[in-house]
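Quick one: structure tokens for this chain, please?
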Amino acid sequence: MRVHHLNCGCMCPLGGALMTPEHDGVRGRLVCHCLLIETKGGLVLVDTGFGSEDVRHTYPRLSHFFVVNNGVVRSEACTALAEVRRVGFRPEDVRHIILTHLDFDHAGGLSDFPNATVHLTAAEVQAAERRSGFIGRRRYRPMQWANRERWRRYTPQGDRWFGFEAVRQLEGLPPEILLIPLRGHTLGHAGVAVDTGSGWLLNAGDAYFYRDEVGRPVSRFSPGLQAYQCRLEQDRPARIRNQARVRELSLRHSDEVTVFCSHDLAEYRSLAASGAGSAVQPERSSTT
């Protein structure tokens, strides 16, 4: 399988260097790191970042609270639709979408691929439908959710993957692609593991936010992103436990598994530059 690393959303959150080492004055720089996987059965998109309608008609598709605080870049170049076309495919070539979770910056592009089958955990659908609390009502945006009759919901089952529970098999997808439950950030949050033939990739989603939280015996945190994780977590003990498990995986199996999260700019740049279909990080737009 050929894997393309895509940036399907740019955000410049308040906080500057306290948020990310890459920053522009008072604002940090984050990406929405998605995967596009070429399989014999068509293209598989892992997360969708922001959708074209999110940047054209931002409200009420996105919460004003998150748009302002996260510095969402409203540019069509920062969408999965644009990225899929950039690497030479048509939107209708995307047959399947796998979501780590339903947050607005991961599921916004669903409406750009209305014919795709969507795969996610049953627990995430339940949490998103409840939309409980101030954060829940703002992180989950039902107007982004297209063609829910094509959603396939999963619970953990089957073989374990490096000690993690795994969902096998995703309907219509090859066995080399797995959902890995990583509850905490949301109640149905999951990673997506891909066997590339030369090693595994683990898109850990929002199980962590900053590159030095993994790959080191002792985590090093970004103060701003650490505070952001705590504000958004739905199950703190599970988030901390699963983050530690992902860190252990990155240390014990670094020769077999490459771990990355959804929003770290340096991780994205490194993987995009080393892989096929690499893309560059767009500069911040004046439309923010």
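The chain is about 30% helix and 25% strand.
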